[in-house]
Amino acid sequence: MHLRTALGAASALAVAAATAASAETTVTIATVNNGDMIRMQGLTEDFTAQNPDITLEWVTLEENVLRQRVTQDIATNGGQFDVMTIGTYEVPIWGNNGWLVSLNDLPDSWDADDILPAIRGGLTVDGELYAAPFYGESSMVMYRMDLMEAAGLEMPEAPSWDFIAEAAAAMTDKEGEIYGICLRGKAGWGENMAFLTAMSNSFGAKWFDENWTPQFDSEPWAATLNFYMDLMTSYGPPGASTNGFNENLSLFQQGKCGMWIDATVAASFVTNPTDSTVAGQVGFALAPDNGLGKRGNWLWAWSLAIPAGSDAPDAAKTFIEWATSKEYTALVAENEGWANVPPGTRTSLYENPDYISAASFAEMTLRSINSADPTAPSVDPVPYTGVQFVAIPEFAGIATLVGQEFSAALAGQQSVEEALEKAQALTADEMEAAGY
User: Fold this and answer.
1) Do residues 345 and 88 touch, judged by C-beta distance below 8 A?
2) Nearest to 28 by CA among 2, 61, 5
3) How far is it, in rounded angstroms, from Cα 396 to Cα 185?
4) pLDDT at residue 363, as a whole number
């Protein structure tokens, strides 16, 4: 009896040892609940077939909750996650803090040189790539070709702000509820301030000089905000101070906007005949400039990164390599069609005739991304990286406060001068408190 028990125990130990030898490594992934990420989860059988020793565990969250959870975890070295979905704003801050694992050792077959230079630059700190882009975007002009033609105008591929104002005036028919231009007015660092910060770059404005002194009391910022206010009050829709990306998308799809300057990712929505009443009449152009060498477009990517607290960095790298590879793009195309592949990350995608034929906006998206430089966002030198944001931890809070002042000006609650004075004062106070 005891012998059988001993033999049974030995057998159990042998099984346990064999199991341990092929033990699965669990990779916990924190991600945002958007369509591309949900699609990725649905395709992970391909990954697990190639990597049977790695188990994937998903934590899928709404964007604001995701930011809170991953920021808290990485700042405390909590180790809850092995892969985090983070934006271009977080990468340079966290990479500089030593909070992320370098991805410079991903295999040559992953082809880091194929990543679009602008996107790669925004994810690199001191030569170290700290995140792999899952999809990227810039911003551009989306416009009604029929209204432009009726106005007797032709949209240049690279328009100036003066042309935008001329076209907005010519296309506006307020009685017919057609507004020449729709732009973000809703307060928020990722809403009106994303647009206005990118716009300000083309006017020669900047958030800070090289000594971190706020610059809202400068002439370029006054020129930016006055031009924006004139456009919106003369040719924009009513209630614009509460319009963000989604509200303007809806207006454009309903045929109420002559032009809309916003994220390149919107192109597939406004050209989709299922959702857009003007799908067949949409043209695209680069975001405007003022002849100063910078265009008013931004740069963003949702990317996958490994926190320094991960206990499975090698398995996490294996997953990131798969999810951001050319092979993954082909997998999505095979299952969902080329129009649905993650855009804006790799040069090779924009050399693929199948993708180009499926996405009429592909070329302008690529040109827009390539015209944004996060390492030199403004006309003058600045001490920060980021195009529509400043890559410092304090920015999100400060820019939300500034956005509230600018939105209030658009709503007619204060003048441009008052809004800029308040923006200057509150930014100076916050930066002083932060020790700059």
Assistant:
1) no
2) 61
3) 17
4) 94
pLDDT of 55-79, one tens digit each?
999 999 887 788 889 989 998 889 9
Tokens of 243: 């319009």
- Give the pair of three-digit tokens for residue 397: 């809070």
Quick check: 373 and 118 in contact, CB under 8 A? yes
Chain centroid, CA 272 distance in Å: 21
In which domain, by residue range, is 151 found? 138-298+384-433
The DSSP secondary structure of 87-140, one letter per residue, reads: ETTHHHHHHHTT-B---TTS-GGG-GGGB-HHHHHHTEETTEE--EEEEEEEEE
Q: Which residue in this structure is represented by tokens 């770059």? A: 201
> Is 246 a member of any domain?
yes
Lookup: tokens for 7: 């033999």
Strands 299-305 and 83-87: antiparallel
Bridge partners of residue 31, in order along the sequence: 60
Residues 294, 406, single domain; the answer is: yes
Q: Please give the distance of CA 326 from its chain centroid, rounded to a whole number.
A: 20
**Beta-strand runs (E) in 106-249:** 124-125, 128-129, 132-144, 179-182
Residues 102-115 have a mean pLDDT of 97
Q: What is the CATH number of the domain that holds 398?
A: 3.40.190.10
Query: Left (φ > 0), alpha (ψ -120 to 50) or beta: where does 29 sit?
Result: beta
- List pLDDT tens digits, range 2-16: 444 444 444 444 444
Q: Would the CA dihedral through 140, 362, 277, 263 be positive or negative?
A: negative
Instruction: Indicate if 169 and 200 belong to the same structural domain.
Output: yes
Q: How far apart are CA 50 and CA 61, in angstroms?
A: 27
3-class state of residue 339 by DSSP: helix
Instruction: State the DSSP code for 288.
Output: P
Distance CA 358, CA 350 (A): 11
pTM of the model: 0.83
